[in-house]
Each structure stands twice: as structure tokens, then as C-alpha cells.
From TrEMBL:
Species lineage: Bacteria, Bacillati, Bacillota, Negativicutes, Selenomonadales
CDD domains: PAS
Domain of life: Bacteria
Annotated source species: Pelosinus fermentans B4
PAS domain residues: 525-577
Protein name: PAS fold-4 domain protein
Amino acid sequence: MYEKLEDQSIELTVMKKMHNISLCVMRKEGMKKIFDEIIETAIWIMQADRGTLQLLDESSDVIRIIAHRGLDHSFLSYFNSPHKSQTACGLTPKCCEHIIIEDITQNSFVDSQSLEVMLAAGIRSMQSIPIFNRTGQLLGILSTYHRTPHQPDTKSLQLLDLLAQQTLDIFKHTQAEEEMRENEERHRALTKELLKEIEGHRLFSELIGLQDFKKALSAAITSIRNITKCQAIAMRLEDGGDYPYFVWEGFTEEFILQEKSLCAKDEMNNRILCENGQYLLECMCGNVIRGRINPSMSFFSTGGSFWSNSTSELVAQTPRENLQGKMRGRCCAYESVALVPLKIKEKIIGLIQINDSRKNLFTKEMINYLEMLGERIGAAVSHWWVHKKLENTIDELHAENLVRIEAQKKAAFAYDQIHQMLERITDGFFALDNEWRYTYINSVAEKFWFCNSQDMLGKKIWDCFTNVQPYYDEYHKAKKENTAVHFEAKSASTDAWLEVHAYPSPEGLSIYFRDITEHKAIEQKELEYRKLLEEQILLLNLDPDYTFIHDLNGKISFWGQGAARGYGWTEDEALSKISHTLLKTQFPYQLPASMKKWWLRANGWENSSIQLKTINK
């Protein structure tokens, strides 16, 4: 048994078990086996009966049980629900300390529903250790459980801390491997998409087919941004010897304004000319456009591009003279930066700039494909200039029709997206125009009203439902005051109670509702129970006898006025005290176990009155 082992033997056994976990990770035996081994080790350390390992799901911000031992479906389902996804007892860790509950039945922080689920699972005590990363973000929770009340010793908790640290390392290792795998998959997908873009000449055909040059280039960078998933992208084109941003997405207006011109200026704010008659261009963009590159350096490509997956490391490790010119430093907020030249044959007419705050966005292969794409765009721009001169007589109505068709497609797509979203929500939803006519009814509302939306669309709400005074007043208030309204009211078509939220807009009203009948019934029962309790207390206070109530452990929960008069202690002095201690009972009479069982089985009041021989205050 654990308690018979020496401390050194215990530590050696734990170290062996943790070593086996590390071997499982190295052999890539699967996360399920690794997590099961962690739980088995935690249970051995704590000599517990059950255990869970929870992990934060960042996509939903919910802590879910990913591995367990000895727990049934009811327990897992309850504590995996979003409203209970904290520790597996409903408590949320606030710091890096253990959560120890020696007896859950005596702990006020465990709510009644959680207590019921845990007792049904055979749990009386628990120990949890939250797992945080270096920034203090909660990553997961390791918990063990006992069938009986239990207080762990210091040594066990220290060993559990070591296991939790190893679990944190495994979490970080797993996340790093997952990020690496996702990056590799993303890079493969990006490369494939770029290759399709180049081989299919799609950007080329899009550019020469549009009449608005700026819109054409905007479409080009949008396409590249969608493929690369980058945060910001822009295109510079030659304009009077300078190369300002022509189109961009994702950059702030402040950034574009500050970096619009690449020209170096003198003390008089005049642009500086070089000996060859060209303006002197600053920063790395100027290097790429002027061809001031050294392909022997890792951040330049043979195709004339600059790229880095970590500008912070590049700036820290590269001598300033190797950067080939004056650097402004405004791109230092971005880690991944690529500057790809746009060429017409060997002439550079601009560049594509791709920035992202994340590291490792690019690969050498991707830069090569982007350079090929830059050549295609450069050729397309050149062709467009020629094509523009030959297409002055193109019918403007045709172009407008193309735009209108595209807008109709986008509008239809947007409607489909909104429709799908509204059909997925669990609340009833409908929309009214400014004439109080139905313009949309989702399926939840249809089922609640037992109607077909097609029969109601276009009809006024006041014609479909009568006796709707609360709704009439609130909806008119929302429109008149242009403010959202929230209220509860009886349904106009059933006996159900509804919670209603109405939001005004220039087009009318958007209304959400849900059935709260059960909630209202619970509220009513609570009111009735509270009233009954107050009546019982009033009756007990009218009793001239020395009446008080305590639980089976003697803790006083009610101290009547008769008891206060007779014994001499006030209500404040007596409440929560132990009766036979307070009253100096000479022979406290304990209920026989058989009577106590019968009383509880009969749903009797657990806090029963017991007559004692006492000495007054």
C-alpha cells in the first residue's frame, strides 16, 4: 500500500510513471493513451478512486473533460456543459493554487445540482490543480476524487504539482506540434492555390476585363490576401517618379498616410534626386524597387524580393549597413513581411507588400510563386494600359450590368448567410417592416405559432393576432423612441410566457422571443414557498413554549421568541450555535439510528425538535 512505502520509494515510483508518460509522448502513442497515463499517475499519487483531466477549448472558451477514470456518462455530460465547464465540481480556479474540498457535502461553494451529480458518481471529496501557462492563462485542470472525505498530505500535493508541470509541458508540446502541422498544411494549400492562380491566368483575365483600373488591382490583392490568409496587403505603383500605395487592405489609414511616399527629402522637404535622375527611395520598399538587393543574404531572393518570417530577429541580428539603405521602422510591428516586385520584363513598376503580425507566414517556395504572380500582374498592368486606350467605346451600360449582377450575387449570398444564421438560433425570430408587415419568420417561430411563414409574410401583425396590448405598446415604444425594448408577456396564441427583445432599425423591427413558461412557474413556486415559510415562522414565534430548531448535529437554525424569553439568549446569540453546548445540556437525547432513517425516508423535516434538560442562561 501507498502509506507503507518510504518517501524515497514513493518519489521513485512517481518518477518512473512520469518517465513512462514522457516515453509515450516521444513514441507518439496518441494523446488518449498519454492523458490516460497522466490520470492513472495522479490517482496513484493521491490514492484516489477517480480522476479527470480537463483542457480549455479555445474555439468555444469552454473547459472540457478530455480524459477520465471511473466516471459515468451523467457526470461527464453535466460537467462538460458550457454552464458547468469549470472544475469538475463547478468551481472556477482563480490562481495557481490547489482546490481541495475535504467533504463536498460540507462545502458551501458546491451548488446543489453539482453536489447531487457528484454524490451520484460516488464522490465525497476532491482535489484539483489548475494548469496555467507563463502568461497566467488557464490551459487545463487535473482533478482526483475520493469516495470518502479526504484531506491530502503535503507530500502528495508536491508530487501532484510535478505531474501538473509535466502535463503543462505536454500541452505546450502538443500545441506546438499542432501549430507546426497546421502551418505545413496551410503552406501546402497556399502554394497549390498560387500555382492554380498562375497557371490558370485568372488574375490576368480579371485585370484586362475590368474598366476600373483601381478596382481591378483591388480585386487582385483581395484574391492574393484570400489565398495567403495574410492580415494586410498593398500594392505600390509608379507615379511621377514616386511609388505610393495604389490599393491596400488591412493596413490602417494612418500607416498608409505615413508610408505613402518612398522618396527621401532634404531639409527643405524637397525630394532628393540621385545622379541617374531618379528619386532616392527609402526603406526596404525602395531597395526592392531600385534593385538594391544582395541575394547572398537570407532575406533577399534571387528574384529580387525581400522576405522575413521574423522582422524582430532580423533587425536584432543584421548589421545596419547590410539592410542596404535607410530604414523607417514602421513595419516593425509586423513579424512576417514580404515585398515582391511587379515587373514588365526586367523593369520594376511597383511591388506587392504582404504584412502579418504572426511569425512564419512564408516559405521560399511561396515567395517564388508570388514572384511569378508579380510578373503576371506586371504584364497584366502593361496590357491593361494598352487595352484601356482601345476600349474607350465600350458600352457603359454593359459594365454597369456586370456590376449589378455581381451586386445581386453578393446580396443573395448575404441573404443566404443571414437566413442560415437565423435558422440555426434556438430563439424565435421575426422581422416587421415599417408598416408592421411580416418580412421574415424563422422556423422556431413557425413551430411555436403552428403556422406556415408563407401564409403570414406580407400580412400585418395586428391582423394575425388579437388581444396583444402589451406587445402593441412595447413595439410602438421601440419604433417611436428608436430604442431596444425587453419585456415578458403572455403569448397571444398560447398560455406560454415569453421573453421578448425588440430592436428597431430604419427598415422596421427585429424581434427575438423564447418560451420562459417553466422559469415563470419556478418563480411562482418560490414565492409560494417563501410565503409558507414566513407563515410557519410566524406561528412558531407565537408558540409560548421554548421553541427552537436544530439539525441532526445540534446546529441551531431557528430560535423562537419563546426560546429567547425562556433561555435568555437572543436570536443573534443562538443561531448557528450547537444546542447542547449553548444550553449546557446534561443528557442530550440522540435519536436512534432506526428512527432517524425512518424520519428521513418519510421526507420528514431533518431539523427536528428534541427535548433536552438544560440550564438557563
